[in-house]
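Hey, quick one: can you model this chain's 3D structure?
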Amino acid sequence: MTLHLFNPENDLALGLGCRNYTPPPHAAALHRAGALLPMWWAEEGDRILAIASLQPDADELRGRFGINGEIGFTADVTKASPWGWSADAVRQFENAGMPASLLPGHESIDIMRRLSHRRTSIEILSQLDGGYQLPVETSDPDEVIHLESMNPGCYVKSPWSCSGRGVFNAISLDKATLYQRAKGIINRQGSVMVERGLNKTLDFAVLFYSDGSRVTAKGLSIFLTEPRGMYTGNLVAPQSHLQEMLAASADITQLEKIINSEEKILTTLIAPHYRGWMGIDMMLHTNNGRTHIMPCVELNLRMTMGVAAMKVAQHLSITTPHIIEWDHNTPPAKGSIDLLPPHEGFALRLKPKA
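Sure thing. Here's the predicted structure for all 354 residues.
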């Protein structure tokens, strides 16, 4: 029996590396509003780490959608499964009553934090056959200025962040502002990642699962972002539809080879240290009129909304494309379905794709 935790603030907690992390109000509200999200992938008998007052909501979700999950820790629980691992996630499980013997120790958490750093994308790209442009990690704000001057339109990224937060395009910033923003990230997290901008046409990800000895590709995710790169939602559709969308623009044989190579890379790099879901964000981009695959924008060593979208598609037997997205203080659109009871202004909704 597994105890699930939705802790979307985990990447922020990794950035600080502390055990007692206090998330900003927006992240804390999303944590509370989405507490029952793991019911969409929980198995029969599993438990959800959430406040007891949400039990009626859990009962309603089970009855409405046929998904699983009861509130709270019990002595039958033998496994912890958070959205993502950090020292703060361990603390939350311990506070719920889980014994330390069922949780990763300090050394394991340190390794997972290191592997969650965006520099892991450099290691993955370096092992792929393709001569891909590598990001640059630096602790010198002046080097950020230099890199942007050499390739205008670079993206500057915090080592740990999520959903496009902690990422910005440098092209609209003057040198003084760019210097100060880069310096701020470096002061907080020790370094900054700089990547050359590409002419992106589609964001997508490959979803992988580690059983502790092997990493295996389990599906595809196509997701939506706003112009600054922040995540806004996921396409919910049969996997065959997602494959067809990619095949319409990309060399699907090349993608299959990339996925096979990444399974091997992740099996060596990740499997000995981590059990659970992960995703590698990728993109399609154009250059000289041709479409290319960027095979690793970043590794998300945690559960992802892409996995959630895949599970929703499976549970609801979705046959036509929909969009799953978090609405905030927004009335439901015509034809939308609330996948979780709205709380604190947040609602996770499934909407027909326009």
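One thing worth noting: The chain has a mean pLDDT of 93.
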